[in-house]
Amino acid sequence: MVKFIELKVSDESEEKTELVNIASIGRVYADPQSSLRCIVELNYQSINDTPVYLEVDMPYEKVKLTLLG
Questions:
Q1: What is the pTM of this model?
Q2: CA distances from 40 to 19, 20, 35, 37, 60 (A)
Q3: Model pLDDT for residues 22-66, shown as the tens digit of each residue
Q4: Nearest Cα to 57, choosing from 16, 9, 5, 15?
Q5: What is the distance between the alpha carbons of residues 28 and 15, in angstroms, rounded to a whole number?
Q6: Which residues of 7-45 are buried (b: 16+ CB within 10 A; e: fewer)?
Q7: How many helices (H) and strands (E) does the chain have?
């Protein structure tokens, strides 16, 4: 069964919700500059072979509990 999680992501100009397959999430890091944000590393790489990260507008603990639950 494929499970997805909605992650609130913002860049310079807009805020949006990304639907991400839980199986494609590698690691989740707390943002060292904000307790209201975290960084999600995905298990796949971009075209130039660099890891793909999402800067998520959700607290680390909330994302972690959602993934574990």
A1: 0.83
A2: 13, 10, 14, 10, 9
A3: 999 999 999 999 999 999 999 877 778 788 899 999 999 999 998
A4: 9
A5: 20
A6: bebeeeeeeeeeebeeeebeebeeeeeeeebbbbebeee
A7: 1, 5
For 58, the token pair is 């959700």
At residue 23, the 3 state secondary structure works out as helix
Q: Which of 31, 32, 40 shows the shortest CA–CA distance to 66?
A: 40
Query: Tokens 């909605």 correspond to what residue?
Result: 6
Q: What are the distances in angstroms from CA 51 to CA 41, 44, 60? A: 7, 7, 19
Taking the CB of residue 55, how many other CB atoms lie within 10 A of it? 14
